[in-house]
Amino acid sequence: MSRSLGVPAVSVVAAAAMVWGCSIGPAPLSAQLPDRIRTGIVVEDYSVDAGLDFESIRQLSVPVVAEWSWAGRGHLTVASGWTEVRLGLPGSVERVVSGPLDAEARLRWALVRDRLDLMVTGSLPTGTNRLDEPDLLLVGLLANDLFGFSTPSLGSGGSLGVGLGGAGGVGAASLGWAVHGRLPFSYQPVAGSDDRVRAGSEIRLRVGLQSPLGRRTSVSAALVASLRNRDELNERPVNRVGHRVAGYVSVDVPVSRTVLNLWGSGVVRSDPAFEPSVVGAAFIPRGHFWSAGGRWVLGVGSRLRIEPQVEYRSATAATDASGLELESLGGLWKAGARVRRGWGRDSWLVLDGSGSFGSIRNDAADVDTRGMRIALYLEWTR
């Protein structure tokens, strides 16, 4: 029988990895200011017509990301933040969950400069990873690919990972690759219950390509394959091995003094699985997700950029436990714009806003949904 590691083990192991990463530079991090800080406020709000188990969901997030670099050889990223989710239920009932997020760290260290990197990742369970049973509806909604919440994770049991990555030239193209293994730790997602959930350990392989396409056009593509072991409930396997393949392609086309960016992405999930990166243990069925969109980058002077954009998202999922048949979960259109304004010598203010409309499939009916997203970010570079 496998042995699940709980919160104390996570705290010791992941904290040790983070402290080690914070002490290998020219000076301890306590004596260094971050080279870059990104923070902001993000508000996302969706409402639906009658016919579903909820009427609205709203999330307010305050992400904080700090980065350190050492002479081009090492790079450390530490991220956390705070979030609040409000779920509106029929009958004017509202459920609210708020609190800090997990603290996550990623260290990249060049073993062979510009050729081979070592990666160490870890997360501490500082977020909200236990919910009252009436709040469990939040789990599936935050994990819904159609909405695409910017902060789908409020808490987990923590994890530890290690990997290798490299890059090189192939003719005029640049090719990159990475392989990464991650070990999640168990936790109790439901308040008042002793049940412990642990997502299966995962190996992820990524291959990326960037190449010119013609005289001025360029293309970027990436493929990520994830192989995951069995998820566990109280140290017992609860579902088949989960496999996931994600792809992304992007084309940049110069138009006069502007750039038109067209892109598409897709995810194929071959088996059901628990999703560890959301509040509690969301059960995600077998299914597919894809999206496509365009962005027009308009430069107004050297310190102002305006980027109108449009996107369509669609998802399918298994209709029953057998997973043999897939049905549409709905589709969602998003349209908006991003404005980047230089502030000071090396800092930026970013205003990002969009509106959305579409439908969510419920049994044999389509339920209309609409929403909005507005975000204000500050990016400061030392």
Element order, helices and strands?
A: HEEEEEEHEEEEEEEEEEEEEEEE
- Helix count, DSSP H or I runs of 4 or more residues: 2
Would you tell me the overall average pLDDT? Answer: 83
Shape, principal axes of CA atoms: globular
Strand pairing plus helix content: what structural class?
mainly beta
Annotation, overall tally of beta strands: 22
Neighbour order of strands in the largest sheet? 1-2-3-5-6-7-8-10-11-14-15-18-19-20-21-22
CATH architecture: Beta Barrel
Tell me about the largest β-sheet. Answer: 16 strands, antiparallel, barrel
User: What fraction strand?
Assistant: over 45%
If you had to describe this structure to a student in words, what would you say it looks like?
- The protein is mainly β.
- It has one domain (7-381): Porin, CATH 2.40.160.
- It is 5% helix and 62% strand.
- The protein contains 2 helices and 22 strands.
- It has helices spanning 7-21, 137-142, and strands spanning 36-48, 56-70, 74-89, 93-100, 103-112, 116-124, 159-170, 173-184, 197-198, 202-213, 217-228, 232-233, 236-237, 242-255, 258-269, 273-275, 282-284, 287-299, 304-318, 326-343, 347-362, 365-381.
- The strands form 3 sheets. It has a 16-stranded antiparallel beta barrel with strand order 1-2-3-5-6-7-8-10-11-14-15-18-19-20-21-22.
- The radius of gyration is 22 Å and the shape is globular.
